[in-house]
Design a protein that fits this description.
Blueprint lengths: L1 H21 L10 E13 L4 E10 L2 E6 L4 E7 L4 E4 L1 E3 L7 H8 L3 E11 L2 H8 L6 E7 H9 L4 H5 L19 H16 L5 E3 L9 H13 L3 E4 L12 H15 L2 E4 L2 H5 L3 H13 L4 E5 L4 E4 L10 H5 L6 E3 L8 H9 L6 E4 L3 H8 L5 E2 L14 H16 L5 H8 L1 H7 L20 E4 L20 E6 L2 E5 L2 E2 L16
Parallel strand pairs: 1-4, 1-5, 6-7, 7-8, 8-9, 9-10, 10-11, 11-12, 12-16
Antiparallel strand pairs: 1-2, 2-3, 5-17, 13-15, 14-15, 17-18, 18-19, 19-20
């Protein structure tokens, strides 16, 4: 019996071996033909810590593989000598035009979000962009615009006046506090905006002096109730008390602590000037005690402001720590004289100025903060005398602050513009769980750049220049920069919503 069982077992083994030999071989990863393969790139993934030469495969809108094994594709791009990283997420962008999107794509951006100021109505904002955008896009619901809309009676005239919320900062309504009924209505409409998919609440607080501290606390509480985040241009920008940046940062920390809300302070560099590193440390200490507050910087020393705004009310030199000679005309590109400043201040036209307020040491100190995000605060491309941040913020980070001054290492710099913004938002923005990473299954938002040449060509007085070094930029699996050139007639950008949208 034992011999017979052994014989039958041997026969079954032989039959199985023959059957397996006749079956087609299973496809190996190397045998799969992908849509696009980047061959031999230096792949950097901030989440896993990967920094090694890899082939990267893309199928459709997702990353299919990041492999040590050579992969095959219908198109194979020689990426030797290039760095491959997740596409950059700009969480502070007012750049809404197609032209500006092209400049940002050439700067490595694949997702641009209008979070500081936001929009209203939210659903209309998203609908107007559907199928037309080069980059991924999203917005917060605008506190500042909504209060203006309510003050105008919520009618057609109010809606027509909201084409650009930033245009309303000088309106007389911005100086007026809301009544009790209007404040209640504000909370209702803010929650409606979040339900329509807004990525939290945006508040240009400094631009509307009528916003009381109670109103700001109530708005922060809406962010807590909706489990989203408040993005705020804080109440004051000043080195001196009263009405100082210190007080405004304390207000934001206090509101976050009292309500339990997520709060993000926009561009601390242009609000706190030489005190910005101290303010960043203050927020770091608050986080260590459980307060959910973060901030960002853009990697430039100048900001943009309107001369006729209250920013330049008497005493502005002490508040901002600058003088007339630190103001650069956005019309001529030249530094202002006192006579020119006085003429602008008292005139009817105001193109604004670039205020050179921050030193290299201040920006470097901010970038050394481990949790500091980097954004652009960019807007429309306004010719040579616009602000260069609209065209070259991320290339400046990589070229100047990584390669030239070595303020940051390359992987750390990439983390500030990929993984950190994704993680800041992913708790209430589902799409962010698939962005900011260079891993299989993630969205195919990918940038490849030459670390030896990446850098900004845009500068003060010559601001409308494309960045150097970005060879390939991909949005949802579609190349928008191919071989260093913008690709025409593609619109792969997709909307980015909060989880509240049905």
């Amino acid at each position: 019996m034992t011999i017979e069982r052994a014989a039958r077992g041997a026969a079954l083994l032989l039959a199985a071996t023959v059957l397996l030999a006749e079956l087609p071989a299973a496809a190996s990863p190397a045998a799969t033909v992908h849509d696009i393969v980047y061959r031999g790139a230096r792949a950097i993934d901030p989440e896993t810590g990967l920094d090694a030469v890899r082939d990267i495969a893309v199928d459709g809108a997702r990353i299919a593989a990041v492999s040590e094994v050579q992969l095959e594709g219908r198109r194979v791009i020689d990426a030797r000598g290039l760095v491959a990283a997740p596409g950059f997420i700009d969480i502070h962008s007012h750049a809404t035009t197609r032209e500006a999107a092209g400049y940002q794509a050439k700067d490595g951006v694949t997702t641009r979000l209008e979070l500081e100021i936001g929009a209203w109505p939210v659903s209309s904002w998203y609908e107007a962009k559907r199928g037309r955008e080069l980059l991924n896009y999203g917005t917060s619901v605008s506190h500042t615009a909504l209060r203006y809309f309510i003050q105008k009676g919520e009618g057609t005239a109010g809606l027509a006046a909201l084409r650009d919320p930033m245009e309303k900062f000088g309106a007389k309504e911005a100086d007026e506090p809301l009544s009790g009924a209007a404040a209640e209505r504000l909370s209702v409409l803010l929650e409606q905006g979040v339900r329509e998919g807004a990525i939290g609440i945006g508040s240009g607080t400094q631009y509307a002096p009528g916003i009381t501290r109670r109103e700001m606390l109530d708005v922060t509480a809406v962010a807590a109730r909706t489990a989203t985040c408040l993005f705020t241009h804080i109440r004051y920008g000043s080195l001196v008390e009263p009405d100082s940046t210190f007080e405004a940062v304390q207000e934001s920390i206090g509101n976050a602590a009292v309500t339990g809300a997520c709060v993000h302070v926009a561009h601390i560099n242009s609000m706190a000037m030489r005190d910005a590193p101290f303010m960043a440390a203050l927020m770091r200490d608050a986080r260590a005690r459980g307060v959910d507050i973060t901030t960002e910087t853009y990697p430039w020393g100048g900001s943009v402001d309107a001369v006729r705004s209250h920013f330049f009310d008497p005493g502005w030199e002490r508040r901002w720590g600058v003088g007339v000679g630190d103001l650069q005309s956005r019309r001529t590109g030249k530094r202002l004289t006192q006579a020119e400043f006085d003429a602008l201040r008292g005139g009817s036209e105001d193109d604004g100025v670039i205020m050179h307020m921050n030193s290299e040491a201040t920006i470097a100190g901010l970038l050394r903060e481990p949790a500091m995000l980097v954004a652009s605060d960019g807007g429309r491309i306004e010719g040579p005398n616009g602000h260069p941040r609209s065209a070259g913020s991320f290339a400046r980070l990589l070229g100047h602050y990584v390669r030239e001054t070595r303020t940051l290492g390359l992987a750390d710099a990439l983390r500030r513009v990929t993984l950190l913004p994704a993680q800041r938002l992913e708790g209430f923005v589902p799409a962010m769980k698939r962005k900011g990473r260079l891993q299989p299954g993630m969205d195919a938002d990918v940038v490849l750049f030459d670390p030896r040449t990446v850098g900004t060509r845009a500068t003060y007085g010559d601001a409308a220049r494309y960045s150097d070094g970005f060879r390939y930029v991909m949005v949802n699996g579609v190349l928008v920069v191919d071989g260093g050139r913008l690709v025409k007639d593609v619109s792969p950008g997709r909307p980015v919503f909060s989880r509240s949208r049905p």
